[in-house]
Automatic annotation (TrEMBL):
It is a multi-pass membrane protein. It comes from the Eukaryota. Its main location: membrane. Residues 757-779 have a biased composition (Polar residues). Residues 2-143 form the SPX domain. PROSITE patterns: SPX. This is SPX domain-containing protein. The chain crosses the membrane at residues 304-329, 341-359, 365-382, 402-421, 441-459, 548-567, 579-596, 608-630, 679-699. It is found in: Membrane. GO terms for cellular component: membrane.
Length: 779
């Protein structure tokens, strides 16, 4: 058996010799590692020696990968140049353009072979190192729990690995399309040759010489013999090499799929305990700040000379401005988590101070402005993103449940504190501190304290994102619209079979699961917000309740949410998130239906409380489950940038709040307070029912990305090449005999060859001569 080191020597191109991996040097490094193991030196660090070997191998891989990319770029640029000059091809420029096309094809075939040799060399040398060290008595176990070969490759193929370019040595999935493009160019050029032969612009001898069918030796300017390859032979060589290389790369493709699954199943970074505490505490304060004004919003509006029903519009100011602030904080959190947390506290201090000052200034505009500013301080997109990015997948739903639970506690403490706030009535420097203004003063103080806690104690987490990758080098060259038969230059496009390659990551990037989760966010927030905002109006109209009674009701509901969410967090370890989502949706719809008023005489407090309790608790449980599920179904590639799970879920939920609040104001203005309850309950039931249908339709998409990748067999070669996808029926086979065309050149010699429009093999078949009719005929 020929040693692989000799194989590289024999099959490598002399002009590229310095860019292949230095196999002999790597073998020497293995000998040094084995020597240390054998010597059993007391201070010898075997793991360190193997790591040094790995670093050397990374250096060799990167050297080869950079060169491979450079050659591909050169070939792409050459083909792009040919396309631009194609409309101006003439008998005079034909030899030059054909020479460029052939040279590019040869170089592409050579670089495919280059990739194969280097990728195979990496596998061989790792296997050798693992075998030699094991024989010497050292058994390697890496971070994946596997041996050196599989662990090294799996770690280097991870999307977030920036030290190695091993993945760049694998074939582009567009290689079959490139082959089809080359085939189309050669075929088109041959058609022009036929045309010029008939017109007498070139001779048959020139064509034969051009395609290497002359028997006379051709020598270049330096006296070297030029080996002219037949065009058919050239393209078949390209195809054989690509298919062979793809088959050998199946090992890498399989581990690349496993590495992608590993990456998707891990968080972007690690959250520390105090960071999670501050994140949850921030949520608690903001939700308390948001809901503390609900019991007195209608009274505050009346005190400033507005309609009480405009309290819904007043409350809508906060989520409305949050739509804008979420964009800012989401982008900001790409660089830092601490900075937006500190900044938002300053904004919230200002907003709450303005809310307290609106009454002494008698300004409705100041009141609305204050709630707008409070919304600008809402950074729940950052809070949600912190959990999505830095909590392990098995803890996401549990931490999401805690996140919702502390938010529910804030929603409870806010309105529930109204009983205590009703006891406050004094002035400070002439400024009133009473049940209407106290929420603003107290929340401003609490946010001021949180500002110092965050500034002094929050630690910026370390993030590890997938490395940035340029688009496939071949994409610009092969960007042809589906169904096009020609490119813009007038040259025939490659066969459509080259444009429909299998993309095994398509199901991973399928947004349907993400869209369903975001829709559920919108619906649950709309239903919950509409119920809470309508509660003071409904209970006052039907039951004669005051602000304190409404606050107590919401407080009791919120207290029930806490143990429920903690229980759900524990159950998430045993029940799939999508099952929890469906159960919570059903209960949300049931709670909404129970609040419906058939007639005023039979509408009781008990019915309303049972419906409200069921609705509110199921909404809170659903938020935690849905938050965890969304962070799992979204690919990690979306964890960086504006449209991360934290931002999208916050925008969906905030928009739901806005719609819910506006719905109350419209219902009150159009139908009056007596009809508000039913005008909330009916659309709530309809929207929840539609959400259940969506969940059922996209059930198989509501699973974590890593699990979906396993189910969809993404561990199959990502390029699809090892399965020869994209080659269609263009594998190596005998030349098809479909029809024969006889033509004559200007010299009267006939050209007879099999003709198949899309077959290079037939288009470039050897000409056969014979006496044929003077006119072109089809036999």
């Amino acid at each position: 058996m020929v040693k692989f080191g000799n194989t590289i020597e024999q099959e490598s191109l002399p002009q590229w010799r310095g860019y292949y991996i230095d196999y002999k040097r790597l073998k020497k490094e293995i000998k040094e590692v084995v020597a240390k193991i054998t010597a059993q030196e007391p201070n010898a660090d075997i793991k360190e020696s193997i790591d040094r070997f790995g670093n050397l191998l990374d250096h060799e891989i990167n050297k080869s990968a950079i060169f491979y990319e450079d050659v591909l770029k050169r070939g792409v640029n050459s083909l792009a140049s040919l396309k631009k000059r194609w409309p101006y091809i003439s008998p005079t420029t034909l030899p030059l353009m054909y020479g460029e096309l052939r040279q590019t094809t040869e170089e592409m075939a050579d670089v495919i072979k280059f990739a194969e040799l280097n990728a195979e060399g990496v596998r061989k040398i790792l296997k050798k190192c693992e075998k030699k060290t094991k024989m010497a008595g050292f058994i390697y176990r890496g971070t994946t729990g596997e041996g050196l070969l599989r662990d090294f490759v799996r770690q280097r193929l991870r999307p977030d690995n920036t030290a190695s370019r091993l993945d760049d040595l694998r074939l582009s999935p567009n290689i079959p399309r490139l082959w089809g493009e080359l085939q189309a160019m050669f075929s088109s050029m041959r058609e022009k040759e036929d045309q010029w032969l008939r017109e007498g612009k070139i001779t048959r001898h020139q064509v034969n010489e051009l395609h290497g069918r002359t028997t006379e030796p051709i020598v270049d300017g330096e006296g070297h013999l030029i080996e002219r390859k037949h065009t058919e032979e050239l393209l078949l060589t390209f195809q054989r090499r690509a298919m062979r290389t793809a088959r050998k790369a199946k090992f890498y493709s399989t581990l690349a799929g496993q590495a992608q699954i590993d990456y998707e199943a891990e968080p972007v970074g690690a959250a520390d305990a105090f960071g999670l505490f501050l994140n949850h505490y921030n949520t608690f304060l903001y939700m308390a700040n948001y809901y503390v004004v609900i019991p007195t919003a209608n009274e505050y509006a009346s005190a400033l000379g507005m309609w009480a029903t405009l309290s819904g519009l007043l409350l809508a100011m906060t989520p409305l401005s949050s739509l804008l602030s979420s964009v800012i904080y989401s982008l900001w959190s790409n660089r830092s988590f601490k900075q937006p947390l500190v900044f938002c506290t300053i904004i919230l201090v200002l907003g709450n101070l303005l809310y307290a000052l609106a009454l002494p200034f008698g300004s409705p505009a100041l009141l609305f402005l204050a709630r707008l500013i409070v919304g600008l301080g809402g950074n729940r997109a950052v809070n949600r993103r912190y959990i999505a990015d830095f909590v392990t997948i098995d803890q996401k739903t549990f931490q999401s449940a805690i996140f919702v639970a502390v938010g529910s506690l804030g929603m409870t403490v806010g309105p529930g504190s109204q009983t205590l706030l009703n006891m406050i009535n004094f002035s400070v420097f002439g400024l009133p501190v009473n049940p209407l203004t106290a929420p603003g003063w107290i929340m401003a103080i609490l946010w001021f304290i949180f500002f110092f806690m965050t500034w002094l104690a929050f630690t910026e987490p370390i993030r590890k994102y997938a490395k940035s990758r340029d688009n496939d080098l071949l994409e610009p060259l092969l960007a042809i619209e589906e169904g096009d038969e020609t490119i813009e230059d007038g040259m025939p496009a490659a066969s459509s079979s080259f444009r429909s390659l299998k993309d095994p990551t398509k199901s991973v990037m399928d947004p349907s699961g993400t869209v369903v989760c975001l829709w559920v966010y919108f619906v649950l927030k709309l239903v919950q917000e509409a119920f809470q905002t309508a509660a003071p109006l409904v209970t006052a109209h039907f039951f004669g309740w005051g602000d304190a009674a409404v606050g107590n009701m919401l407080a009791i509901i919120g207290l029930l949410v806490l143990p429920t969410n903690l229980a759900v967090g524990k159950l998430s370890q045993m029940i799939p998130d999508r099952v929890g989502q469906s159960i919570s949706l059903f209960l949300l719809g049931l709670g909404s239906a129970l609040t419906f008023e058939l007639n005023s005489s039979s509408f009781t407090v008990v019915q309303y409380l049972i419906g409200g309790f069921t609705l509110f608790i199921s909404a809170q449980v659903l938020e935690g489950v849905n938050m965890g599920l969304l962070s799992k179904v979204m690919p990690k590639v979306m964890s960086k940038g504006l449209f991360n799970s934290g931002f999208l879920s916050t925008e969906a939920g905030t928009f739901g709040r806005v719609v819910g609040n506006v719905m109350i104001s419209i219902a009150g203005a159009v139908a009056g307070e007596a009809s508000v309850n039913n005008l909330v309950a009916i659309p709530s039931v309809v929207l929840v029912g539609f959400s259940l249908v969506c969940s059922y339709v996209f059930w198989d998409r509501l699973v974590p990305v890593a699990e979906r990748m396993k189910a969809d067999d993404v561990m199959a070669p990502p390029s699809g090449l090892s399965q020869m996808d994209g080659w269609g029926d263009l594998r190596i086979h005998p030349i098809p005999q479909q029809r024969s065309i006889v033509r004559r050149d200007s010299a009267g010699s006939s050209l007879y060859r099999p003709h198949t429009r899309n077959s290079v093999a037939s288009s470039y078949g050897n000409p056969q001569q014979g006496e044929k009719p003077s006119q072109e005929s089809v036999e």
